[in-house]
Amino acid sequence: MIPQGKLRRIKREAQVQKNEITQLLIEDMSSEGFGVGHAGGMAVFVKDAVAGDLVRARIVKVKKHYAYARLEELLSPGADRVEPRCPCARSCGGCQIQELSYSAQLRLKERKVRENLIRIGGLKLDPGEDSDGTMRCEEAVFQPIIGMEDPWHYRNKAQFPVGADRDGRITAGFYAGRTHTIIDNHRCVIGIEENQAVIETVISWMEQCGVRPYSESGGDGTIRHVMTRAGFATGELMVVIVAAARELKEEQKLVSMLLAALPDHAPSDRSRPCRGSDTGKNKRFRITGIILNTNPEKTNVILGREMRVLYGHDYIEDRIGNLTYRIAPGAFYQVNPVQTAVLYQTALDYAGLTGKETVWDLYCGTGTISLFLAQRAKRVIGVEVIPEAVRNARQNAELNHIDNCEFIAGKAEDLAADLPGADVIVVDPPRKGLDRVVIDVILRACPVRIVYVSCDSATLARDLALLTQGGYRIRKVQPVDQFCHSVHVETVVLMSKVKE
Length: 500
Ligand code: SAH
What we know:
The structure is a single chain. The protein contains ten helices and 22 strands. It is of the alpha/beta class. Helix 2 runs parallel beside helix 10 and helix 5 packs across helix 6. The structure holds S-adenosyl-L-homocysteine. The site of S-adenosyl-L-homocysteine has 18 residues, from helix 6, strand 17 and helix 8.
């Protein structure tokens, strides 16, 4: 904490003031997707500005060494600026960098991974000696990021909050960044096109039947969210209505309206693998399940515990590579199936399996990576903290007739020490990265290879530095763009022992 007196002095000395409007040349971009310029000797971070822009921006927050500003006027656009496809791109919290050309987005993400490894992990880009525990690698270790051919309509899951505007009109769309204000938008350009028909049908059913949206502040009303999950390889679509009630007025009318809005398209094809061209844009989906989820709690968590099938199945199936996955409404499943296939294939390649290995898949979710690995390993052991995901993982193994996979429910940090020895260890932790205990267990297990799948390159860098100190060396770094138009980037890293 800075003492009050010092804070006042700093603020006096600061050469930009809150609410001041300043002209800035955006010189660079931060890893959070802000444009970065300089004013009054300070770095100024401007949301919605991109490198090369000349802007007028209003200072909204002044910190000790930097400030935040809001874009007021674009005076001259940078070379990488494009017109966002979504009219709500600035206000919606989903996409952060739609105004940046896709190739520039990919460059930004590639750089983010690299800079985090250097800045946080202490990576030195020279072959050097491995003896001092410094993380080192040659330039060639960095693989070019794998982006999408068509980075639109790629998301297989959407969650639209439903509410009412000041005039009582029903709205549905997305929360504005960091708030619970609903931006009315039924056409999200990163989701599947059918979402629009689903959301508009639910709203018109609500209007016709006098069903009110749930109010977060008052706790009254019924409909909270509409969620969709789509199988890109199978064409199956699940609609989940999240309500504060156990029963809805005229449920059957809702079902028939939804089915009429999305008439039966091509029959389900569960034998076809997901292809690179299978984005939600080229695909037509048909409803194979409508589910009522009851969530009466005052909470930010979207799904409640109770589910009741109103139509069809309480799951969808999808395929990644040659494997089939059954996905329950609440199950974790990667949101970009086209790129997930790339991600898992990379992890499998890096694992370098010959059929003789015992492999750990820590943080395995519903066993998606484990099953990929199992096809080339002797034995795979998956560890996952959510018991329902472990149940799904076992079902998925059965569905694919894979019997050399075991799944254990519990925390990786509690269970890893007691697992049988591993030749290869794959980890895919949540954003906070690996627990220190897990790193120590991995080092003691002394696998030939470690494959680290990461959704946060900052914690990845921290963990790779620790694994390096434990005698491993980075051999490959492969960023994959799973979340186009956001600043997030997925990375697969291969490490192996310095001395075999
Ligand atoms: N590999 C999977 C899931 C990755 S997401 C896939 O690709 O689909 C990370 C997973 O780690 C989540 O399923 C989460 O529930 C699980 N998890 C979080 N903390 C954990 C812990 N301490 N131990 C084990 N699993 C954990």
